[in-house]
Structure formats: C-alpha cells, structure tokens
Amino acid sequence: MKITQGIVENIIQNELNGDIHTFTHELQKLDRLAGCKYEMVDAHVHIVDFNQKTTGLKNLLKYMDKSNITSAVIFWMPVVKIWQENEKQRPNYYLDDDNACYYYSNTDAIVAREYLSLTKQEQKRFFPLLCWFNAMDINCVEHIIQTYKTFPGVFYGIGEVFYRHDDLTHMTYGEVPRMNTLATKKLFEFISEYDIPLCIHNNITAPGISDYPKFLHEMETIIREFPKARVVLSHCWASRRLRAPYYTKMIARLLREYPGLYVDLSWVIFDEIISVNDVSMQEWVDLSEEFNDRIMIGSDVLWDAFEEIGVINSRFNIFLDKLSPISRKKICVENAINVYAKSKNRVEKNKKRTYPKLAELKK
Fold this sequence. Notes:
Layout: H1 5-15, H2 20-32, E1 40-46, H3 57-66, E2 69-75, E3 79-81, E4 101-103, H4 107-116, H5 120-123, E5 126-130, H6 140-150, E6 157-162, H7 166-171, H8 182-194, E7 198-201, H9 216-225, E8 231-233, H10 247-257, E9 261-265, H11 269-274, H12 278-290, E10 295-297, H13 309-314, H14 317-320, H15 325-340, H16 358-362
Parallel strand pairs: 1-2, 2-5, 5-6, 6-7, 7-8, 8-9, 9-10
Antiparallel strand pairs: 3-4
C-alpha cells in the first residue's frame, strides 16, 4: 500500500483525534526502536553466518552508529554449513535443512582481514575473539597460540566456543562437544595462565529435558578446578526449547560461587525467560543489581542482519529502565570493556600471570 498524505491525515483525525502532537509522540516511540536509548557496548555480535559470509565491519559500524552502540565484541562462526547436491537452495542457517556442519579453519582469518582493513580509530571500537577449533581436540591450545602469532594484535580473547548447542550439537561432525574433557582442561589452563576471557555456548540442559539442568555438572567440574579462569556464558545458558526450574536462582548461585564467571544477555534469554511477566522481570532486575559487574548485553546479530541490531537491543529498554544508573552503566558499557579490553597482546608478548613466591607470602 502506498502511503499518501491523505492516509496520514486520516490516521491523525480518526485514530488520534486530530492531535498532531500525539502523532509526533507516537513517531518518536518508533524512533527509539532504532537502538537502545542507553549507550551500549554490544557484547555478542557474529560478523559471519553459517556460510562464512559477511557484509563487513564498515557496514556494521554504520548501523552501530545509528543504534547508540559505541563498541562491539565480535566473533565469527566456528562451523560452516554443508550444501549438499540434493538441496536446490543453499542453506543459510544450520536449521535450514538436515545436513551437517563442520569446523571451518578459515573463519579467524576472515575476521582478522576485516579488522585489519579498518582505520586505527575504527579498530578501537571492536574486540575480536578467535573461535575456530574443535573443542574436543586436545591440540586446540596449539592452534589458538598459532592463530595469535599469525595475527598479532588482533584478538582480545576466545569465543564463541560451541559446546552443548541444541540441534547444532548433533549436526556437527565429530564427537559431541562437552566441557568435562581433557581438551577443555587444557583450554582452561591456557586462559588462566594468560588471563584471557573465554566466551562459550553451553546449554543448561537438552531440548527434551526441562525438569533439571542436565549439563550443569559438566561446566561446574571445570570452573571449580580453575577459579582464575574468566568465562562468559553466552545467552546466560539459555537456548531454544530449554527450560530449567529455578533459573534465576541457579544463575545467582553460580555467580556467587564462581567469581570468574560472567553472563551475556543475548538471543532468546530476554524474550523467553526475563520478560515473560512482571515477576520474572523483577527477579532479573534484582539479580542484575546484585551482580551488576558480571552481566553484559548482546544482540547476537548475524552478518546479513546488521540493520536489526538497534531493534534487537531496544528490547532491553524496559529492563534497563528499572535498573539503578550505576548498574545500568556497568551492564551496558563498563563490564564488557573490563572483561575484554585488557587482554590484547597477552599471548603474543607472553604476558603470563605472575604469582607471589611462597617466601613472600610468609613475610
């Protein structure tokens, strides 16, 4: 339908009783959907899709500027979707057909190339993470070190590493990825040694089991053994079709017990768990006030939907309005910077954690 002046005048007259000020006010509401009304560092952005395609970081910057997003934590996609000959149309998403995915070795190079093509000023707005490796491979740390050395000065950490990931778990070649393995221990030793953050996707339970957190013990086995590790739980452990009882209380317990644990509120966590009703919203407001230095917000937007980043993040306005100004500033901006910004060049320059000697502790 073509929008004409007559249609607009009818809307003003019939729906808004001829009040042009009310009409202008309603338009301003729509303008707010262009982005979060609070300045934000988006803590979860994929710049490629499951075909490893991207429209580029300069394109992302354009929509960040329109959406009140100052910086972004960016990563790629550790797997690529197979296009088999029996499929007439190329799949863009891992659920577009029943065919498998496999780990894609070039994804970090795509990210590094995009990042290095930016000006120095533009680079300051991004925190790239590296992500291509099989989390079940004990060789993964060797690959990570090699990637850091191949692209020095690019990466600020590791992620988003896929462990338990609903249907994608069963659609990826190789062993079913889980956290309580020797390979993951090697990875956690590495991030603890160099004090670099690790962003992971690990579902709280399986899609068919909603009465208890089936995979909770897998993660706790590891983070309990490595208390110095800084770990960001993508989507605050949520995923499609996943429900676990006492969700908010479970997250609160984990944050209390493990000071190196962080969460990002992205993807389905807001729509399916936080904003279900007034009670759930208030529970998450209370939790966010208590742990205001451990929570971040992300869009989880993909490469071909950068224009949606503002609309996605604007959903959080109603939640952020309820927070204190101090908590809101930390969750929107400061926490992501504190977690990621200090980790650049630590591996390339061999900046390992230093601990006091026993003799010094006895003094």
